[in-house]
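Researcher: I'm preparing a figure for a lab meeting and need a structural model of a single chain. I don't have an experimental structure, so a prediction will have to do for now. The sequence is pasted below. Please return the structure as tokens so I can convert it later.
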Amino acid sequence: MEIGAGAAFLFAALCFFLTGEELLALLLPLCAHELGHLGAILALGLRPRGFRAGPEGFTLSYSGEAGALAHALVAAAGPLAGLLYALAAARLQGLLGLSWLPLTAGLSLALSLFNLLPALPLDGGQLLLQLACAFLGERRGERLLRLLSFATAALLLALGAALLLRGRGWGLLLAGAALLFSALRPAGLVKMRKIR
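Model: Understood. Here is the structure written out token by token.
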């Protein structure tokens, strides 16, 4: 397990600005998401190799022989686990009435849907990359995902700018900028194709 300095700083800032319940509401969906990936890795007979937390997010590396469909399933398992967590938290809110459960359900839903966007390094981009390379060949599949990543980032930037001008906050604009930065780094595409 490797925790980068950026991730440690971000966690410290979250601890400073969020209450204990808010921090729990954020960390539980992140854990559910990563456990979804880990569960799929183990179920497919692959071997987890390491976990890295950085300012750009989490990376779970694994090794083993598997086809494109298996790698696509590993990518899809995180958002699926997050969606199931959101449903469970919303259901538990009705039963238990804990004040932080709607927040954690909403955060998990937002994280899962964002991760399904067709852009690398997100899970949706990885899923599509595996399928595109299997059906179109590696070169065409990578080119298609590079274009989709740029288009998705540009769309998020445009929507984020429009929302910012209407006083709706910086969130979507920052997400688009982060995706654009990832799309501009050619190493990001190579990293997604190599299975450790």
